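Why do we care about 3D structure at all? Because function follows from shape, and shape follows, mostly, from sequence. That is the central idea of this module. The next example makes it concrete: a single protein chain, its amino acid sequence, and then its structure expressed as tokens.
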Amino acid sequence: MAISTIAGIDFSKPAETVAQQLIGVTVLVDGVGGRIVETEAYDHEDPASHAYSGPTERNASMFGPPAHAYVYRSYGIHWCLNFVCQEAGHGAGVLIRALEPVAGLDLMRVRRDALDERLLCSGPGKLCQALGVTRAHNGMALSERPFELLP
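And the structure:
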């Protein structure tokens, strides 16, 4: 049975609810990460959502079970990390927009070629680069390594 509650967050809830509850949760990828400070909710009814036009090969993870990663490339340049919400088949998720870095800062600085802590995870592409998130993380359960979510 799939786990849908992690760090006190019930990912089977609507994306808007999950997005609000994720603020302050720490997300780590192989021990590198920080506290979530900015999120953005998407539902299949939202024209801005990747799920709006239905399932495709690119967005299939967004229609998968809750509490899994949906990772996609934005503008062909940056990876973006989303957490899937609601029941499988629904098509909803939360974009992780920014983190306050708290773990693995030295590795983040190397990955981002940035010294200023405020610049390490101040956007969805930056935080994926800092955490080493790529398409390889797409579809992975948030309850299993390399992911760790802490209240």
